[in-house]
Automatic annotation (TrEMBL):
Gene (name only): nadE
Enzyme class: ligase
Metabolic or biological pathway, per its Swiss-Prot or TrEMBL entry: Cofactor biosynthesis; NAD(+) biosynthesis; NAD(+) from deamido-NAD(+) (ammonia route): step 1/1
Any Pfam family matching the protein: NAD_synthase
NCBIfam families: nadE, PRK00768.1
Reactions catalysed according to its record: deamido-NAD(+) + NH4(+) + ATP = AMP + diphosphate + NAD(+) + H(+)
Organism name: Brumicola blandensis
Gene Ontology terms describing biological process: NAD+ biosynthetic process
Protein name: NH(3)-dependent NAD(+) synthetase
């Protein structure tokens, strides 16, 4: 039955030992970095709980590697605002908590605006112009996420780095990320955790309370700044987490979630070729 198949695919345990998950995922990051022969980890720090948690795990990983070897591993925490960000203080609180080897800022506004304006201009010149302001703003939101991805890969290229991704199972199951934007990365150390389990790890490591308890937001749409993920999805993270942890008895929410899962399946599979349909 689909529900159980999806639960199995998402790998979430009903209960976790936070300390063990921290050690296991830190070790995974260390292994990926040493196996790659590279020296640097790169991650955008938004002010949300996912990047706060993974940023700290990344810093723990490089701290341990530097204690164990003579090499100089580092974590670069990247602020990637689009113009001025409303929850900038939360991003700064995350950085204070993470204590990254390096912190830097790259504003994505000019890159994202240029990509979107070029597309609109070209389409209009070709006589295709039937999109509303709301639709255009939504698509620009995805250009922001893809600009963040491009900048992080630029930084990784310049610094012998790997790009980390914050995708966890509550995000993976909903496909609630931009394809080849924040969905693109070299490793996804939070996969297998529900949203409340990500918060559990953050709490255990001593992350700032205001970041742990804040409402998750993609914050991509300029017309609706700081819109909550739950409003966008029409589901609460408690409903998604209960499903993932095998605890949901809410068949209406389960069906809604499964419909979202099926609709976003193209984001989770390898790029199709002719051989997939033969
Ligand atoms: N059936 C199909 N088979 C193969 N490809 C398919 C497809 N349907 C769409 N596509 C392709 O995928 C594209 C749509 O995907 P995509 O560009 O991702 O766009 P889309 O899924 O429409 O939007 C991304 C959603 O993720 C949310 N998001 C994004 C980033 C971060 C976060 C966050 O929580 O922080 C949330 C965002 O708010 C929005 O609701 C289409 O333009 C098309 O190219
Ligand atoms: N303004 C930003 N600055 C830097 N990185 C960003 C920014 N916005 C998004 N990102 C990157 O994209 C990722 C996906 O965003 P997402 O909103 O899912 O995670 P989050 O903000 O860390 O946590 P939450 O989902 O609770 O808001 C972030 O974890 C971060 O790495
Ligand atoms: Mg966010």
């Amino acid at each position: 039955m689909l529900k159980q198949e999806v639960i199995n695919e998402m790998r979430v345990l009903p209960e976790i030992d936070a300390e063990l998950e921290i050690q296991r995922r830190t070790q995974f990051i260390k292994n990926q970095l040493t196996d790659s022969g590279l020296t640097t980890l790169v991650l955008g720090i938004s002010g949300g709980i996912d990047s706060c948690t993974l940023g700290r795990l990344a810093q723990l990983a490089v701290n341990e590697l530097n204690e164990e070897t003579n090499a100089a591993y580092r974590f670069i925490a990247v602020r990637l605002p689009y113009g001025v960000q409303a929850d900038e203080q939360d991003a700064q609180a995350s950085i204070d908590f993470i204590q990254p080897s390096v912190q830097m800022t790259a504003n994505v506004k000019s890159a994202a605006d240029a990509i979107h304006a070029s597309a609109i201009e070209g389409l209009k010149a070709a006589g295709v112009d039937s999109f509303t302001d709301t639709h255009s703003d939504f698509v620009l939101g995805n250009a922001k996420a893809r600009s963040r991805m491009a900048i992080q890969y630029d930084i990784a290229g310049l610094t012998q780095g790997l790009v980390l991704g914050t995708d966890h199972s509550a995000e993976n199951i909903t496909g609630f990320y931009t394809k080849f934007g924040d969905g693109a990365c070299d490793l996804a150390p939070l996969f297998g955790l529900s949203k409340r389990q990500v918060r559990q790890l953050a709490q255990h490591m001593g992350a700032p309370e205001k970041v742990i308890t804040k409402a998750p937001t993609a914050d991509l749409e300029s017309l609706t700044p700081q819109k909550s993920d739950e409003d966008s999805l029409g589901l609460t993270y408690d409903q998604i987490d209960d499903f993932l942890e095998g605890k949901s008895e809410d068949t209406v929410a389960d069906d809604k979630l499964l419909a979202i899962y099926l609709k976003t399946q193209h984001k989770r599979v390898a790029i199709p070729t002719v051989y997939d349909s033969e």
